[in-house]
Amino acid sequence: MQGSANLNVMIKAARKAGRSLVKDFREVENLQVSAKGPGDFVSKADREAERIIREELLGARPTYGFLGEEGGEASGADPTRRWIVDPLDGTTNFLHGIPHWAVSIALEHKGEITSAVVYDAAKDELYWAEKGAGAWMNDKRLRVSGRRNLHEALFATGIPFGAKPGLPAVVQDLARLMPACAGVRRLGSASLDLAWVAAGRYDGFWERGNQIWDIAAGILLAKEAGGLLSGIRDGQDILESGSVICANEPLFEPFRKIIRGN
Question: Is pLDDT of 214 > 90?
Answer without folding.
Answer: yes
